[in-house]
Design a protein that fits this description.
1076 residues; alpha/beta; 6 domains; eight-stranded parallel beta sheet; six-stranded parallel beta sheet
């Protein structure tokens, strides 16, 4: 059953009899409360209640303000009110609500009070038993005492987040979930297409495994496409009833440009009477936003970054102060060395606006939300932190600064205004520059049409799988096949190959492709004979302290000096590591509209005191943006082609109809006209323009103008850089953006180059400086080859290195060393770089595969690039090559981003920049420098202490159980019984490992030693060691470089040594070890 505006909706989404029948299914108390509180159900509620009544899983798809939450909850509340609670206390919790936002969870708990109290009063009025329905919240903000109470005395309805559900399932608290009958997933569209959603999908399957029968799932989603994909995510094994009534939501959208000409700033502001000339767009935008805020009851101003949110918020308050007092705040004179990312605030009080984003403390965010809902706060400047369905009843205007990142995001944001059923949502978009104006026009057009981008569920994210496998095996011993079956029940892993599953288990069990991975601690034990996997000691703690999917950015917590952080008080927010490194004690910065003076900077936090009214720096944060989706890029290209083909008056009519004001429409027409005059062409969905010109240094710049977005341009730029390196031997600087690709070709590198067969006219000639050697022929690729070129190149990119770090952390290979404390980002990068150095040699290592998959599928749109190359081959998209005396208007916008990217490139971390290693002859260098032998320079006592440390002979490294012996054998290699005892081992522990098929007895160099079973094939192939009977086949496969592995391990676990010492230990001749 699909409740839509198509044929299947007849009789389903109409109000008459259907409304009465849907309500008739409820108890008299529930029905009485609802009819007293509301005029009638919404179409979404009618359809949802009928589908829920039929007992199936349900997906309700409707815009903001359609009553979806009550649609999901009311049937559950009615049942809880009518039925007595279970006799078994641990089965009392029957409804589990999962929200992607902690704030949304709190909001829902508050909104449930009305129906709960109403149904209770109506029951009393009707003479029915008074229901006692308890509601609890479990999130990262829940105090420890409340968490313990939830575990021992579960509520009837538990509201939680995906991360907290994972923590509950990975602890004894999971017993409180054994009675769950219904799971409500709110804002499911926000997680389904992410790794966070894949993580949640596995958690839901783990929950079902706990229950006597799988819980019914009810998903709530804003308008999403394709609906079937979200339904498959919600419940891949059962049929899902999709309730999607026709949307009656009305939007009043406009795009406003407050200056007559965005290309020539400095003219008078749009509002009459404003003095002075202003060389930036920002003063004009800020004043116009201030006017709008003061003309409305409550306004949310959305910005696309935290830094911009802070800046706008402070400027709005400065404008309000100057208007209220008639006094101008003192101009800020920032020191010259202040980095470009940091701005400054002049200490104005928060008269008009407050900031709301993820780096403001939860307490401050809660206060801001309450003041906004109550109408006490005129405006909030927010990022996506307020994008999802928190009820903001008083908000009557949304302002978006810069084009929304996507159509779906724009609809969600504007939907915060007029949140009530039937209300009109009013939104105003202020673009920053002319290129942004074009995207804003396209996005608002598509918002009116409801043409949102399609969503895709990630396929087989192996880092998420690794984390959940550690958590599951930490709680129970699993049959390997049954565990795989459970994993495949989750939609993101439905197609998981058994080979990938096995490789992840191998990695977690310590069976690595090389002994160089020995420092990675195994997290589970895989008994290959019995076919079972069990978590090692410490696995459960690791999962709950380092679990989750949101990358750790190494942010510094900001706390009030003198407050006790252990009691949860005093947290102000958080700052980017780079900003903190630039700050000093005594500096003042602004966060959340309040000025703070730095009192101390410790290893993991910044201690501050309030500095009201004192001017200070504005903070900045570094983050990732995926860029324009291909669908939006195609629409933008079509818009440029269609508007560009119209006469000016007809073009103006279309733009005004799309919601652009007069100056915005005039700016678009002028922008396209100037581009055509400069280049002769405007890039669009059927024309890609390759523009070449000289820069200020006389070097060639080549700009590929394309509307298809960064997700297509990023892999294209990778392939292009590889081609230029191969053809010309140049390390070309390539920058990609939403609107194209920029290349810089240093003239000195080009002189004398042979021009290859890329252009028949120039073939066989030598570069003479008169024309760029790179043209349209260089940027086109064979559609059958481009995917492989990108795949080959991605492993050497900075993107791959950063994604590898995040994937390794997500897979718990790089856990937090001190849970609860900050791990500096540079340390994370350093540890990840060391792992990557080893892992990059093994393409089958699961986390290498996952990092590549994430780049190719989640970040890049390689199929889109392949399709584009096919369109170029088939002449459906033409390449046009032009040489201009100066950059065209479109090129100037792109070059601004190019400068911003490379301005601080020298500061980018080495771990995430690939550079050719310098190869040196160490002996020749030592002779040249007159250096003594290394051993002669080292203190003998220091060497002895190092040896004891590496050999685990120090007191602090003595083993305490059989797991410690397993680690010894894995890290140090085969050891005798005496050597184990010397390190604190009980003789029985090795026998315990032998019985578990995790250790074997072998003879090496004439003596019996204990060895890890993973070493069996290595010892046989390197030393000819006879293996005992019963070693699993997986550990007897041929090893690539067995002797090299053994010698490398010997080197890692000893101080300076001779080859003779290593040979003696392995029972080999010196000639053999020298030859290895």
């Amino acid at each position: 059953m699909t409740c839509t505006d198509g044929p299947l909706s007849v009789g389903r989404c109409t109000m008459g009899g259907m409304a009465r029948s849907a309500l008739h299914a409820f108890s008299p108390a529930t029905r009485g409360w609802f009819t007293g509180a509301f005029t009638a159900p919404t179409a979404a509620q009618e359809g949802a209640w009928q589908a829920i009544g039929e007992g199936s899983d349900v997906l309700v798809v409707a815009p903001t303000g359609s009553g979806k939450t009550l649609a999901a909850f009311l049937a559950a509340l009615d049942r809880l009110a009518a039925e007595p609670p279970p006799a078994e206390p641990r089965k009392r919790c029957r409804v589990l609500y999962v929200s992607p936002l902690k704030a949304l969870a709190v909001d829902v708990e508050r909104n449930l009070r009305s129906p709960l109290i109403g149904i209770r009063h109506e029951s009393v009025r009707l003479g029915l038993p008074e229901p006692e329905i308890r509601v609890g919240i479990r999130s990262g903000d829940t105090p420890a005492a409340e968490r313990r109470a939830l575990a021992t005395r579960p509520p009837d309805i538990l509201i939680t987040t995906p991360e907290s559900l994972f923590l509950m399932l990975t602890s004894a608290t999971r017993e409180a979930l054994r009675g769950v009958e219904t799971v409500i997933l709110d804002e499911v569209h926000a997680v389904a297409g992410t790794k966070r959603g894949a993580h949640l999908a596995l958690s839901l399957e783990r929950l079902d495994e706990l229950l006597d029968r799988p819980a019914r799932r009810i998903g709530l989603s804003a308008t999403v496409r394709p609906v079937d994909e979200v339904a498959r995510y919600l419940s891949p094994r059962r049929a899902v009833e999709i309730v999607q009534p026709p949307s009656g939501k009305e939007f009043d959208l406009s795009v406003v440009v407050p200056v007559e000409d965005l290309g020539e700033l400095g003219g008078s502001p749009a509002q009459d009477g404003q003095p002075g000339e202003k060389p930036s767009i920002w003063p004009h935008v800020e004043e116009r936003i201030a006017d709008l805020v003061q003309a409305h009851r409550s306004t949310i101003v959305f910005a696309n970054s935290r830094r911009l949110a802070e800046r706008l918020c402070n400027r709005l308050n400065e404008i309000a102060y100057e208007r209220a007092t008639g006094e101008a705040l003192p101009e800020d004179h920032s020191p010259a060395e202040l980095m470009a990312e940091a701005g400054a605030a002049r200490g104005a009080p928060a008269l008009l606006a407050r900031a709301h984003h993820g780096s403001v403390s939860k307490e401050q965010r809660a206060l801001v939300e309450e003041d906004l809902k109550a109408g006490r706060l005129p405006a909030v400047v927010a990022t996506s932190s307020l994008e999802l369905g928190i009820d903001m009843g008083a908000v009557d205007l949304v302002v978006q600064v810069e084009s929304p990142p996507s159509v779906a995001s724009g609809l969600q944001r504007v939907g915060r205004a007029g949140h009530q059923v039937g209300a009109v949502s009013t939104g105003v978009v202020f673009p920053k520059y002319r290129g942004d104006l074009v995207q804003a026009a396209v996005v608002t057009e598509r918002m009116r049409e409801g043409a949102i981008e399609s969503l895709r569920v990630p396929a087989n994210p192996l880092d998420v799988l690794a984390q959940q496998l550690i958590a599951m095996t930490a709680m129970d011993s699993w049959d390997v096949e049954e565990l795989l079956a459970l994993v495949r029940r989750a939609a993101p892993f439905a197609s998981l190959p058994e080979s990938a599953y096995t490789s992840v288990l191998d990695m977690l069990a310590g069976r690595y492709p090389s002994d160089a991975f020995a420092e990675l601690r195994p997290r589970l034990v895989w008994d290959r004979v019995a076919g079972t996997v069990t978590g090692r000691p410490g696995a459960q703690r690791l999962a709950v302290t380092s679990g989750g999917t949101i990358p750790d950015r190494g942010l510094f917590g900001v706390f009030l000096a003198g407050a006790d952080p252990k009691k949860g008080g005093g947290r102000v927010g958080e700052l980017d590591e780079e900003m903190v490194y630039e700050s000093r004690v005594g500096d003042v910065f602004t966060l959340g509209t309040t000025s703070w003076r730095i009192e101390d900077i410790t290893r993991d936090r910044v201690l501050v005191s309030p500095a009201p009214g004192v001017p200070g720096r504005l903070p900045f944060w570094k983050g990732d943006q995926l860029g324009r989706p291909l669908e939006l890029g195609r629409a933008l290209g079509a818009f440029l082609r269609e508007v560009g083909a119209l006469a000016p008056e007809k073009a103006r009519e279309r733009l005004l109809a799309a919601g652009l004001d007069a100056w915005a429409a005039d700016n678009v027409i002028a922008y396209l006209g100037e581009q055509r005059q400069s280049c002769g062409h405007v890039p669009d969905d059927r024309t890609i323009v390759v523009e070449r010109f000289r820069d200020e240094l006389g070097d060639w710049r080549v700009v590929v103008h394309s509307p298809f977005g960064a997700q297509v341009h990023a892999p294209w730029a990778l392939a292009l850089a590889a081609r230029l390196s191969e053809r010309y031997g140049m390390d070309t600087q390539v920058m990609h953006a939403d609107d194209g690709i920029v290349l810089r070709l240093p003239d000195a590198d080009l002189m004398g180059l042979d021009l290859l067969d890329t252009d028949p006219i120039r073939q066989g000639t030598e570069y003479d400086g008169e024309q760029s050697p790179v043209g349209a022929a260089d940027v086109a690729f064979d559609r059958g080859e481009v995917s492989q070129i990108v795949t080959d190149q991605v492993g050497g990119s900075a993107l791959f290195a950063s994604r590898f770090r995040e994937c390794a952390a997500r897979a718990l290979l790089l856990p937090r060393r001190d849970p609860g404390k900050r791990t500096p980002l540079w340390q994370q990068r350093q540890r990840a770089a060391q792992l990557l150095q080893v892992a990059s040699e093994f393409g089958s290592f699961p986390i290498v595969l996952e990092a590549v998959r994430e780049c190719l599928q989640d970040v890049f749109d390689v199929p889109g690039l392949t399709e584009l190359m096919g369109d170029i081959e088939a002449r459906r998209v033409r390449l046009v090559e032009v040489t201009t005396p100066e950059p065209s208007p479109f090129a100037r916008s792109l070059l601004f981003g190019y400068v911003a990217q490379f301005l601080y490139e020298g500061d980018s971390p080495l771990a995430e920049r690939r550079a050719a290693a310098l190869s040196l002859d160490s002996r020749l260098l030592a002779e040249l420098l007159g250096q003594a032998e290394l051993r002669e320079l080292l203190d003998a006592d220091v060497l002895d202490e190092l040896e004891r440390e590496l050999q685990w002979l120090t007191e602090d490294r003595r083993v305490k159980d059989a797991e410690g012996v397993a680690d010894l054998l894995r890290l140090l290699g085969p050891l005798t019984g005496a050597e184990l005892a010397e390190r604190g081992a009980d003789p029985a522990w090795a026998g315990e490992l032998e019985r578990a098929r995790r250790a074997i007895r072998v003879r090496i160099a004439g003596e019996e030693r204990w060895a890890a079973v993973e070493d069996a094939g290595r010892l046989r192939d390197a030393l000819g060691t006879a293996l005992p009977v019963g070693v699993p086949e997986a550990f007897t496969e041929p090893v690539g470089d067995p002797l090299g592995d053994l010698l490398a391990r010997y080197a890692r676990t000893h101080g300076p040594f001779t080859s003779a010492e290593a040979a003696t230990r392995l029972g080999l001749g010196t000639a053999v070890t020298d030859g290895a």
